[in-house]
Amino acid sequence: MPESGLRLLIFVAVFALVALCEHAWPRRARRQSRGTRWGINLGLLGIDILAQRLTLGAAALGMAVYAQAQGCGLFNLQAWPAWLSAVAGFLLLDLAIYLQHRLFHVVPLFWRLHRVHHTDLDLDLSSGFRFHPLEILLSLLYKVALVAVLGISPVVVLVFEATLSAAALFNHANLRLPTKLDAALRWLLVTPDMHRVHHSVIPAETNSNYGFFISLWDRLLGSYCGQPSAGHLGMTIGLREYQREDQIGLMQLVLIPFRQPEADHSQLAGKVDRR
């Protein structure tokens, strides 16, 4: 099965499973109709896929194949066991995505792109693919460069990409996990409750919990926030400057990066509950 087909199969399977779990154990009531939001988020996903197909495609995997064939990159120059290179490659890719996410909150130009993701008024699995196409392409270029420098194997790249897609669906889910299970899982993995804090309208909470799959980076690098100050049921999701439905239609989201920001959200700060 080609790489794109395998990723699609995994995506559909995880999407169906998470959607069923959301329906059975929802965490919050919706502010916006599911049909409206899913139409917008799926529409943005379609634009993202088209943008990739017309430009870079599966460039990260292609670079991994090339680096392996040419013996380029750090891991291809070391006599490490294959399993050690694989684990190190996966961890470094996940750390790199954490650092990229944090950078997109700090650099104003990147924030113009990334704030599209934060305009969602609710949070569910469809939020996991609410990204501006230019952000997707920049992220892909970043991963291509990482794969080239590190010489990460094609199998690890494929596994990482599938994991990242599945994790985005899971950690954006409107899913109520048992408190003890959530507390145990988040010592290693990003849970829906942990990531939901990142989508708070309170800037200090938005600028925390940047991890997508492994939660340790937030704890180790000082960006972990345990709980939202208003609680998970009382918190407001989104950005203060984009709280109306008429501001966040599909075409408006595509144009948001090219409009003057109403507030420099990345520079604001406040108190954070880091328990």
TrEMBL record:
**What Gene Ontology terms describe what this protein does at the molecular function level?**
glyceryl-ether monooxygenase activity; iron ion binding
Keyword Transmembrane helix listed? The answer is yes
How this chain sits in the membrane, per its record, is: Multi-pass membrane protein
A matching Pfam family: FA_hydroxylase
Which biological process, per GO, is one annotated for this protein? membrane lipid metabolic process
Which residues belong to any copy of the Fatty acid hydroxylase domain? 87-223
| One Gene Ontology cellular component | membrane
- Can you tell me where the transmembrane regions are? 6-26, 38-67, 79-99, 140-160
Q: Which InterPro entries match?
A: Fatty_acid_hydroxylase, Sterol_desaturase/TMEM195
Entry keywords, A to Z: Lipid metabolism, Membrane, Oxidoreductase, Transmembrane, Transmembrane helix
| Main subcellular localisation | membrane
Its domain of life reads: Bacteria
Where does the protein end up? Endomembrane system
Name this polypeptide is given: Fatty acid hydroxylase
Q: Species name for this entry? A: Marinobacterium aestuarii
